[in-house]
Please model this.
Amino acid sequence: MYNYIIFFIICFLIILCLAHIVQLKKQNNELRILQTYDPEINTITELFKEKLPIILVDEINLWSLENEAYEDRTIINKELQELSPILKDNFVHRRIIQNLDHYALSLSRGWSLSLETVKNTPSSKIIPLKEKNYLRLIGCLKGEMRVMLFPPNINKSILDDPSLSTKLMEPTCDIPCLEIIIRIGSMIYIPYGWWVFIYSHEKTILLDAVNSSVFGMI
Model:
């Protein structure tokens, strides 16, 4: 009897893990953007199930990073040389992680944070990259970023075309694409499997936050 119970428990856990993996790899090809402001846990769960790009309006602006020792610990609108030591501060790093944990995967290995700078010229080529992370949030700390998104089912030959930039500018362009402006203090969720290109014609600083799964770095 004891062996049967162990067997059923193992089977149940395997089914749960498989269901979790299926949900992680689920893809949605709709050209639609979701948007939310300071969402509740239930709202977060429902939005992320859609597997569509999500704008988290003023997400970073809502974070409180101050403590008694450091009254001004905002990470908004600072230069890169100012941001690097602030993010290395254990208190600030921990508070950022605590804020991000509202969005973490149910079987998470934690968050990886990095700072990125973006600045393109109008003639820069559009080279989309496939999103291989199950959960990735990108926030705008300074400047303004533009995000071009292509659905998972797009023909890769379209993205590899050297004239992609020109074709996207044509009035009759029928390439499936979303273009989103993310302003300072806001974040965007990039769904797994989507193709993404981030650009800005002014110097822009981004906070790149990746939440990895216990099933491996993706």
In short: The chain has a mean pLDDT of 87. The first strand starts at residue 34 and ends at 36. The CA atoms of residues 40 and 102 lie 9 Å apart.
